[in-house]
Amino acid sequence: MQLNLEQKKLISMEPSGHILIKGVAGSGKTTVAVHRIPFLMKHYCYEKDDQILLVTFNKTLRNYIRHLYDKVENPDEQISMSEMLNNEVKVDIKTIDSIVYSYYRKCCSDNNIKFATNNDKFSLMSKAIHLLAEKDHATKIINHKNAGFLIDEIEWIDACLIETLEEYQQVDRTGRATNVMQKTPQKLLKNSEIRSSIFELKEIYQELMTKDKLTEFRMLNKIALTSPVKDAETYTHIIIDESQDLTKAQLEMVKRIYKPKPYSSITFIADNAQSIYTHSWLGKGRSYTTLGYDMSGKSRTLSKNYRTTTQISEAAYSLQEKDETLKNDTDFVKPLLVDRKGHYPIYRNFATLKEELDHIKVTIHELSSEYKLSEICIIAKERRIAQEAQHYLAQQKLPCEILDRDNPNFESDMVKVCTMHSIKGLEFKVVLIICINEGVIPFTGGMSEDDDKVLESDERKLLYVGMTRANDLLYLSSHQKPSRFIQEIDTAYLRFRRNTCLKPLYPISITDYLKKDKILDVYAKEETIRQWILRELIDSYGYKEEMLEVEYPVMDFSRKGFADIIVKIYFQGKWVPYILVETKKYRAGIVDAEKQAASYMRLLDTVRYCLITDGHSLKIMDRDLDEIEDLPRFNNLMLPDTLQRYCYKSYRNQPDMIYERDSEEPGVISLKRWDSELAIPDVEVMDIPVLGDVIAGSPLKVNEEIKDRFTLPLTWMSQPKNTFMLEVVGDSMKDAGIDVGDYVIVNKQSTADNGQIVIALLDDEATLKRYMQMGDSVLLIPENSRYEPINLNPDQVQINGIVIGLLKKL
User: Fold this and answer.
1) Residue 660 and which of 202, 353, 404, 576 are 20 to 30 A apart at CA?
2) CA-wise closest residue to 331 among 370, 296, 366
3) Cβ-based neighbours of 130, under 8 Å, separated by 6 or more
4) How many whole angstroms from its chain centre is CA 209?
5) Within 10 A of 13 (CB to CB), how many other CB atoms are there?
6) How confident is residue 532, by pLDDT bands cut at 50, 70 and 90?
């Protein structure tokens, strides 16, 4: 893995006090953070007491940073992790909790203090509630059933460094409704008896904690901040990864150990779209000025996700776009698509958890021929679900392990299992997110409408975090009722299974049904499945509605049957059945439908493919009844007109022309002037191969197999023997008039002039872009505002040819 130019610029910035680096998921924020350390060591640690600190949110992230560092090539400053941590300039990579605890130990001599367990907390809270009730100061909310809510609220007060009742009465408190046990919503209103009771309860609760020599990290953090420490360790340079997740108390602790010098720096790495903790300070839209930092002119942005494919990014962003709370955040970074071709996420829903996990087991078994088990991760919203999944799959002899927070082994040959919270900051080639069920995510029980929106935003971010952990493949699944978040993901960006165009089952209104005049009962349960397939044949496979028939009669001697759907094509002067579809009602099973389809295919000798589904199971077969991955997509050769007409556009200052050929005799061509349609006679021609596809958008390996041939005039070519064609299958050059389905005519060569449209190879993958060399870097520029230019070193890009012409279907 190589650093890109944007990352290199941020790594080598001259330190100038505080700075904010904002970036979307997968933009390389953590990579910048860890590779900035050797740069600062070498250039900005002048004195013996200069030290560097990288702060991480948890132990998993700390260990992952060490795992990640040596995998990234940085020839400018490359040293090993062990060399970096054992240098004469002291470098520390610590979790925020370890920093707080270390500071606390220096200011507190009592070694008998212990951390309270959850049982300790609930026991002491029960006592505190009883004591407050004796004073007759309790309100309805001060109730044993609300103990968990009250503990969390008290810890939030400490996390925000709220010292007085007056301060607590005035602070904005979003996301905290108190109707846990009541039927009607009740908010934590400002200047209310509820807040007064909670604050008094806090004082009693913490007195009981102190009496029992117990503490928890938020109490400990406050003590550390308010106690003087001699010879406290300080740092010249501090880099805070995932700073949006830290509490105010934690951020103030980092400030305390910062040593300002003319060349020192404190760097905040953040993405508010991934703020998933209720106690976080900056992640809830608060300004850095609340910490004493003015970020005007001190902010840098990484807006491109290099981790995931374009297809996964599109699905994740379509979910993120539903978050109105996030859109109003001034530090939100709108993500930009990066050219990386891949598969759309796969979504399936199941009846039970066992059925869902059995499917996961089969999927991983299939993936194990392509990926190491260590490159696959299963994630769930809740730890209990992750543990249940790991236990069940291990019983099924699938090597898997819960990702150890303290000592994770990323290289072990086992599938990793973890929660959405613990995967934050990590990445895997394949990610499977399970149990995306309503009631699990989002979990909004006991919230008022306003607060429900706040918590729902946090839960949506959590799913977004999980989705953006995947490098190559993303699988989403649920059982029983799917989460509302599944409905928020644009179905255009989901698939039923890998390597098929078919989208997952979705509802269609009866008023929008197709072929209603041919349907006996539009209310039949199986009709929902048939209508889904009809829509998919049109929208995803490109067939024309007039090519589709329902209730197609099939004669078997004197018996008449009816095929659910037939796709017809025009062949040898007549319309004939080409694809057969049999559907059943949802989850009814497809065994009987498969037998029926085989019988119909035997009787319909022109049918070449069949699809059988009940909306849950799917089988696609060829004429020999062998299972295949997908149906063929529509092409114009399936229609009666065999004449193919194209507009020819030259990139060599030649006039536009009309190019015609007969699909049944492709070597016979006709040329006409574009402006007058006068024929151009007697041209010398040559057959040119269409080698495959090129993505005007995402890089894609060029398919060297010859897909087609075009007979073209020699005058259209620079070097006939070096000429080839590619079909365009992406949209990033659409503003230059190059659209999906067009053919580009390419002259094979290894150099290009500025402004020429080129076929460029990036890591053996081909993409179509406008070429521009600027100083020591090369820009590959799209012609679509949805895509950003690709900025590379010259040695990172190989020119495979320049576009000299274009054929656009008329």
Assistant:
1) 576
2) 296
3) none
4) 43
5) 16
6) very high
Q: Looking at the structure, give the CATH architecture of the domain made up of residues 641-809.
A: Ribbon (2.10)
Neighbours of 602 (CB within 10 A): 12
Q: How far apart are CA 14 and CA 226, in angstroms?
A: 33
CATH fourth-level superfamily of 324-493? P-loop containing nucleotide triphosphate hydrolases (3.40.50.300)
Exposure string for 536-556, b = 16+ CB within 10 A, e = fewer: bbbebbebeeebbbbebebee
Q: What does the CA dihedral 660, 664, 668, 672 come to, rounded to 10 degrees?
A: -10
Residue 597 CA: distances (Å) to CA of 519, 609, 612, 622, 648: 19, 10, 8, 11, 45
Residue 492 has what DSSP assignment?
A: G
CB atoms within 10 A of CB 585: 15
Burial class (CB in 10 A: 0-12, 13-18, 19+), 286: middle
For 447-468, write each residue's pLDDT tens digit.
Answer: 445 556 778 888 999 999 999 9
What integer pLDDT is reported at residue 78 of this predicted model? Answer: 58
Active site residue 560: no
**In the chain, which segments carry CATH 3.40.50.300?**
5-98+230-303, 324-493
Planar angle of CA 135, 140, 146, nearest 5 degrees: 100
d(CA 547, CA 380): 43
Helix residue ranges, H only, 321-439? 324-327, 353-367, 383-395
Split at pLDDT 50, 70, 90, the class of 3 is confident
H/E stretch holding 658 reads strand 657-662
The conformation of residue 278, written as its DSSP 8-state character, comes to T
User: What is the number of alpha carbons within 13 Å of residue 445 lying toward its C-beta?
Assistant: 9
Tokens representing 58 are 């948890």
d(CA 403, CA 417): 6
Q: Two tokens at 288?
A: 């850095």
The token pair that represents 277 in the structure block: 């903790």
Token pair 């193919």 is at which residue? 644
Task: Give the Cα separation of 603 and 610 in Å (integer).
Answer: 13
The CATH number that domain 510-637 falls under is 3.90.1570.30
Catalytic residue among 265, 416, 732, 808: 732
Compute the distance between CA of residue 284 and CA of residue 273 in angstroms, rounded to an integer.
Answer: 10
Closest C-alpha among 86, 97, 104 to residue 41:
86
Catalytic (active site) residue 769: yes
440 to each of 145, 479, 548, 657, how far by Cα in Å? Answer: 21, 11, 41, 60
Q: Is the pLDDT of residue 513 over 90?
A: yes
Residue that is written with structure tokens 């086992």 in the block: 414
- In the chain, which residues fall in CATH 2.10.109.10? 641-809
Burial (CB count within 10 angstroms: exposed 0-12, middle 13-18, buried 19+), residue 760: buried
Q: Where in the chain is the domain with CATH 3.90.1570.30?
A: 510-637
The radius of gyration of the chain from alpha carbons, rounded to an integer in Å, stands at 31
For the domain made up of 5-98+230-303, the CATH class stated in words is: alpha beta
